[in-house]
Amino acid sequence: MKVAPFNIPILPLGLLAKFISVICLALFPLLIGYVFYCYSKKKWNVSHVLNIVLPALSIGILFSVYGISLTSIKGMLFTILLIYAGISDITTRQVSNWVPFCIAIIGLIDIEISNIPFMVISSVIITLPQLFFAVINQNGYGGADIKLMAACTFLLGLKGGLIALIIGLSLGISVTVIKRKFKKESLKEKFPIVPYLAVGSFISFLLI
């Protein structure tokens, strides 16, 4: 009596390729998050689990919305810089000048040259009222906030920049007031606004 050979089922190549692609897409954001976690721990001595979760979650959302595309890559680079700026502002109350510069460079990805003048004008329009506010209230807005929003508006456009600014400021003021009321702290002290502007910019990128 012959025993039938045991055959291991083999997935079709197309299905196998899709399965590998899904695994890679799932692991890639986590890998980026882990790299960012290691970098922030080395640079700022900050080892919070959110330094893994935030980059991984944000990049995962981008790939879910835009798939594997140039827009996803652009958004990924933009998001990493936004998170970097937010953590830098929280830990040192400073953001290096190369961050908004790099955001502006990323803004040139996948755009027509004819759009650049309007992008520059949009940055100027969003910057002027912030400069005015910074002059009349020197304990509030700072240079890092203004430069970051100018660069984000260059990338997002005037409408996107306004959305990012409104969401960021609304979120920052609301969270800070509630937090300080709960802790019975003074509302007059300056607080890091870049993290909230970063959240607003990321949401705006998804909306525009």
Protein model, in words:
- The chain has one domain.
- The longest helix is centred in the last third of the chain and has 41 residues, at 143-183.
- The protein has helices at 13-44, 50-66, 70-92, 98-106, 116-136, 143-183, 194-207.
- The protein is built from seven helices and no strands.
- Helix 4 (98-106) packs across helix 6 (143-183).
- It is mainly alpha-helical and 208 residues long.
- The mean pLDDT is 81.
> What number is the mean pLDDT?
81
Assign the structural class, choosing from mainly alpha, mainly beta, alpha/beta, alpha+beta, or little secondary structure.
Answer: mainly alpha
> What is the element string, with H for helices and E for strands?
HHHHHHH
Query: How is the biggest beta sheet arranged?
Result: none
* Shape field: globular
Helix content: over 70%
Alpha-carbon distance between the two ends = 69 Å
Gyration radius over CA: 21 Å
Question: Total helix count?
Answer: 7
Number of strands: 0
What's the domain count?
A: 1
Beta-sheet strand percentage?
A: under 5%
Low-confidence stretches: none
What descriptive keywords fit this protein?
208 residues; 7 helices
Question: Short summary of the structure?
Answer:
This protein is mostly helical.
Give the topology, please.
Layout: H1 13-44, H2 50-66, H3 70-92, H4 98-106, H5 116-136, H6 143-183, H7 194-207
